[in-house]
Amino acid sequence: MGGGYVLIDPAAKAAAVRALCGASQRMRISHVLLIPLLAAAVTARDAGAQYRQTSERGAGQLRVRSQALAQGGYAVVVDLDANRLYFAKGRRVLWSAPVGTGTGLRMESDRSAWDFHTPNGVYHVTHKAREPDWIAPDWYFLEHGLRVPGQNDPKRRFTRGLGAAAVYIGHGLAIHGTDKPELLGRRVSHGCIRLSDANALRLFHDVQPGTEVVIVGGDGEVKEQPPAPTVRRNRPEGEPPPRDAVVMEMEGHSTSELLARLDEELVADAFAQGDANWPRVASVLLFRGVKEDDDAALGGLLARVADLGEGRLRDEYAAFAADAYAQGAL
Question: What is the pLDDT of residues 42-70, one digit of tens each?
């Protein structure tokens, strides 16, 4: 594989200018004012948001060989040693989050065997799905002392069993949501990579089929015994896991209200550190525009790309805009 070496430094962030937001952070900010405000804020934050190129591995840094990143493109990097996912463009980390990865344990039956590890290597997104069902494999039933049903038995299907979204990368692997975010940052999965539902939905919009996914690390032994497996149950009367409460609340608002909220959240992300909330607002607008042919939702979403100047925030927002083009009949 071609490509160069880059370093991801998750600790490299510019100091937040929280005082500039103050109490006005929740106020409705006109779309016109965003142009100079966001451009200045993004420039300030990006001063420390890059990672350095060097041949040495230092504390908090990850050495990654990536053709996409070396060419200035988008890529996903998963560090199995740190149990952390990075979404990056070229030399810039756009966001990162803790993940759950494979335990490294092994299960055997009289007919088959399974290794529950997350393999490293270079993969590419094959497809993606929002709120997908999970089709349980044989090991799930053996793990819980249940009779293994037939391949097409409805007992294998768990509604929304992969969380808010899933990004499939081939070889039976996926990066998907979970309703147990308290287990993230540990080796707790059967091989797939788990994100919080909010971040799984964010990644869903950030990537497209063909996006490079680089998985590194994981050579060391598991140092702690993972918790006992949690039974994935179809809840009473087949009730699926709950949907994201924040997304559901947003879905009840008008398009104009959501666009105003999107402006607020973009400013908040530009000025303050912490988890960004604008991706969930943008997601609701995007799906509304696509499913309901809401031109105001899609048009408003796309129009804001030009307001963001250059930098980390614009780079990720542009990925959302690309997803709007990919899904919408524009």
Answer: 443 443 333 333 223 333 344 678 999 99
Taking Cα atoms as reference points, which of 36, 95, 85, 38 lies closest to residue 64? Answer: 85
**Those residues with Cβ within 8 angstroms of residue 225's Cβ, 6 or more apart along the chain or in another chain:** none
Q: What is the DSSP letter of 163?
A: T
Measure Cα distances from 203 to 6, 208, 287, 291, 294 in Å.
21, 10, 15, 20, 23
What the block records as the tokens of 152 is 């097409």
- pLDDT tens readout for residues 76-89: 999 999 999 999 99
- Going by their DSSP bridges, the two strands 193-196 and 173-178 should be labelled as parallel
For 188-198, letters b (16+ CB in 10 Å) and e give: bbbbbbbbbbb
∠ Cα 121 205 123 (to 5°): 10
Strands (E), 46-104: 62-66, 74-79, 84-89, 92-98, 101-102
Q: What's the number of CA atoms in the CB half-sphere (13 Å) around residue 224?
A: 7
Instruction: Find all residues with CB under 8 Å of 35, minimum gap 6, and list them.
Output: 306, 307
